[in-house]
Amino acid sequence: MALTLLAANNAQTVLAAGISASATTMTVNTGTGALFPSPSSGVSYFKLTLVDAATGQLTEIVHVTARTGDTMTISRGQEGTTARAWSANDIAANMMTAGTLSLLAQTALSLQIANNLSEIAAAGSAAVSAAQSNLGLGNAATKNTGNGAGQIPTMANFTSGSGWIKFPDGTIIQTGTSISGPVGFPTTITFPIPFTVSYRIATSFDTAATGAADCPAFATTPAGGGLLAFYLMSSRTSGAGAGANWIAIGK
User: 51: closest CA among 62, 42, 43?
Assistant: First the structure.
């Protein structure tokens, strides 16, 4: 992960003590460390330019990766400069550098609001997959909504009405309670909505009371064209019909 570059306006001080060319920490004048950013190790840093106080001609750019009070942890010889020994009272300033400008200019590596993440798309499918993974997005993030293959249904793809519900894949469930005819005299029951392919029906007697005189069985068969209605007949042989709860499932 790229570290975040920090900066502070007009942050300048001097070294409290000299450092060698291999030193990885430095201390600035008492109380002046607070002028500078406070980077987190492995997360952020800021650039510091060291300049000799005697001539102003010698420079070294370092990256400050951590700061505790006036003491800074530094990574030496950045941006083509050479690590060297520095003396007390040499200048340490948070200046603009060529590396800073280059980083800011790398718009191809940055996300611009106006581009609406097109930079990631332009980097190819691997970059898109990595971005989705980093955001914790699963396969659903790449699917469109709708009833088609590979699409994700929304609530708008579920329809229903009195006695029926239709699912996104076209499956229809219809229910009702109807009076059947006796043996030889079936009743025609019209579905709330027509099926378009086929269906199956299950039935049960609508009364389970203690005083029920019988418990008839029921038979069904398609009526007419077969998809709009069905015949419902009970096992009763008298003229009285029987109430039946029914459920039809199909497409």
Answer: 62
Rounded to 5°, the CA angle 229-221-179 comes to 65
CA–CA separation, 5 vs 106, rounded Å?
A: 13
Q: Which amino acid, 193?
A: I
pLDDT in tens, 100-139: 888 877 655 667 777 788 878 888 889 888 888 888 888 8
The pTM of this model reads 0.48
Rg for the chain, CA atoms, rounded: 40
